[in-house]
Automatic annotation (TrEMBL), chains A, B:
<protein>
    <recommendedName>
        <fullName>3-isopropylmalate dehydrogenase</fullName>
        <ecNumber>1.1.1.85</ecNumber>
    </recommendedName>
</protein>
<keyword id="KW-0479">Metal-binding</keyword>
<feature type="site" description="Important for catalysis">
    <location>
        <position position="187"/>
    </location>
</feature>
<feature type="domain" description="Isopropylmalate dehydrogenase-like">
    <location>
        <begin position="2"/>
        <end position="347"/>
    </location>
</feature>
<keyword id="KW-0560">Oxidoreductase</keyword>
<feature type="binding site">
    <location>
        <position position="95"/>
    </location>
    <ligand>
        <name>substrate</name>
    </ligand>
</feature>
<comment type="subunit">
    <text>Homodimer.</text>
</comment>
<keyword id="KW-0432">Leucine biosynthesis</keyword>
<feature type="binding site">
    <location>
        <position position="219"/>
    </location>
    <ligand>
        <name>Mg(2+)</name>
    </ligand>
</feature>
<feature type="binding site">
    <location>
        <position position="243"/>
    </location>
    <ligand>
        <name>Mg(2+)</name>
    </ligand>
</feature>
<keyword id="KW-0028">Amino-acid biosynthesis</keyword>
<feature type="binding site">
    <location>
        <position position="133"/>
    </location>
    <ligand>
        <name>substrate</name>
    </ligand>
</feature>
<dbReference type="Pfam" id="PF00180">
    <property type="entry name" value="Iso_dh"/>
</dbReference>
<dbReference type="InterPro" id="IPR019818">
    <property type="entry name" value="IsoCit/isopropylmalate_DH_CS"/>
</dbReference>
<keyword id="KW-0100">Branched-chain amino acid biosynthesis</keyword>
<comment type="similarity">
    <text>Belongs to the isocitrate and isopropylmalate dehydrogenases family. LeuB type 1 subfamily.</text>
</comment>
<feature type="binding site">
    <location>
        <position position="219"/>
    </location>
    <ligand>
        <name>substrate</name>
    </ligand>
</feature>
Length: 347, 347
């Protein structure tokens, strides 16, 4: 199996280094042979080649069996709304070109981290949510433009039925293997694209009679996720709403630094932390690498079908937490200083 | 002063009845004379007249000094994506026709409710956020349409600079009178309308040198709001992002049932709870009327400039909570059964 490592920007390099080490240990322990290559994306790719997603990177991605991805982004562009070339374009183009229409984000709290969250332990205990975020449509890919000499700007929130259908089917199928509950999130009381989304969910629902479906508006969902996370099992939603809800849901897992995601579609899968490039802590060696480690577990599970190997990684994370080790972001007032580790030591 | 009461749908009628009673008590106590009228909106207006915002209602709104508003919505339409006439159209048309471009949503926890939230008390204590949600633009009012024989649907997320400027100025001015911090929320790493939004904030910022500005992406903001609500003072954002963030922020105030909002613009102001029509509890007499009561306080303060009267209402809410009375939504496991009140008793 051939794995492409794409560190990207900021802490991406630090955390994927650890993710890759874990894959190496797994290969040795379980007698697999993984080969690796590296490629550029985002700000580092712009600096080196002028493009946020060089052709060479895209070709290497297509040729790989799976991609271990870091993060993209750089504050320089955030403060310059007029920049024409931006790191995020590389990420979005990758998603589109590789047909990565389904972004899976499992949200599950490790027992040891019950106290690391801002939410009360009794609200969190037992929460276990699997998000399906649509990843190649919506306002991320619709037409956008300036009008009226730059004084007006628009973006287009757009969905076609086949795009909704393929992600909703994946979500229904996953719900079958879990708690048999599917929550679809939209804003159908206002948006036409949401009404189309809801129609598709309603049309498919009879094919999955064993799965109970509910619809929530995005505003209510953002509230309920915090108020009562246990009510959710599988959640399916569009690209923008999924972006917002899954970041918010990171508080259920104690920290953004714990959350992995899998982006899958018709071909190569891409595995990445849901956190960003975090330039404020880049190079300090304090980033939590566990989201990248858990992304490696998803890679083993989903792209390679290696369930035992994936479980071994999750168990390793669990046991390191049980022994009391923490990175700064998941430490609480009871963590003794000597148990607070940097990125490398945690790896 | 002439006040129009527009109960709308579901629990709207129950809670505005209490809001109006409170206005009456204030009038008596402070020697004012308020006159009242009523009008229809939403589902009840559709049933009675065929239109979700009858012309008569709009005329009465224009003629009033302020509007005390309930809620709109009905499950019937939510499950029928193809309905052409919908209660929410009445709400959106009202906002547009009355030029209510600024929706103020103060989020402040009454000390007594520290335990009612799913968030830890130590995270909440001292949180005090004032949201400015833009209310007459964005994807709520852009062109929307079905294409391709109904198989594709789009909505248009659109902003012009003058629309952003007028709400951002209001937010800057409010920040001046408070903690002097303004957080602008957008998705400028992807959306052109967000880049325009950010440009306007950056352009205006030098005019308010005493206010510190930060920009957050909506996904990060949704996370930070839960992780560390105290970091926020004034938040300004677009219509859609504001809808999501303020519902989420209701958890900071313990319950949706506590949150009031003011929608203001060039003329008549509209005051309403941020909660919806809640048909699941309609007619049971259990709805929390305090959001409507606090909306009445905002009405007195903002539309009539009656600060002492507004404070008297807030103090009354505070003291009723101090005595231990709760509606069901803000009760916790320590609330004795005899202290749990219905809508009327709480009023
Ligand atoms: C960096 C940004 C464009 C991206 C997104 O919004 O999709 C990120 O927030 C994510 O969730 O992967
Ligand atoms: C009912 C709905 C259209 C409305 C909105 O999205 O604006 C509501 O959620 C609100 O926040 O007032």
């Amino acid at each position: 199996k051939h794995i492409l490592v794409v560190p990207g920007d900021g802490i991406g390099a630090e955390v994927t280094t650890v993710g890759k080490q874990v894959l190496e240990v797994i290969a040795q322990k379980f007698g697999h042979e993984f080969t690796y290559d590296e490629a550029l994306i985002g700000h580092v790719a712009i600096e080196a080649t002028g493009s946020p997603l060089p052709d060479e990177t895209l070709e290497k991605m297509r040729a790989a069996d799976a991609v271990l991805f870091g993060a993209v982004g750089h504050p320089k562009y955030d403060n310059d709304p007029s920049a024409k070339v931006r790191p995020e374009q590389g990420l979005l183009k990758m998603r589109k070109e590789l047909g990565l229409y389904a972004n899976l984000r499992p949200i599950k709290l490790f027992d040891e981290l019950l106290e690391a969250s801002s939410i009360k332990p009794e609200i969190l205990r037992g929460a276990d949510i699997l998000f399906f975020r649509e990843l190649t449509g919506d306002v991320y890919f619709g037409k956008r433009e300036r009008l009226d000499e730059g004084n007006t700007a628009y973006d287009t929130m757009i969905y076609s039925k086949y795009e909704v259908e393929r992600i909703v089917r994946k979500a229904f199928e996953a719900a079958r293997t879990r708690g048999k509950k599917l929550c679809s999130v939209d804003k159908a009381n206002v948006l036409e694209s949401s009404r189309l989304w809801r129609e598709v969910v309603q049309t498919l629902s009879p094919e999955y009679p064993d799965v109970t479906v509910e619809h929530q508006f995005i505003d209510a969902a953002a509230m309920l996720l915090i108020k009562d996370p246990k009510r959710f099992d599988v959640v399916v939603t569009g690209n923008l709403f999924g972006d917002i809800l899954t970041d918010e849901a990171s508080q259920i897992a104690g920290s953004m630094g714990m959350l992995a995601s899998a982006s899958v579609g018709d071909n190569t899968g891409v595995y990445e932390p849901i956190h960003g490039s975090a330039h404020d802590i880049t190079g300090k060696g304090v980033a939590n690498p566990l989201a990248s480690v858990l992304s490696a577990a998803l890679l083993l599970d989903i792209s390679f079908g290696l369930k035992d190997e994936a479980q071994a990684v999750i168990d390793a994370v669990d046991s390191v937490l049980k022994v009391g080790f923490r990175t700064r972001d998941i430490a609480d007032q009871n963590t003794p200083a000597e148990k607070i580790l940097g990125t490398e030591a945690m790896g």
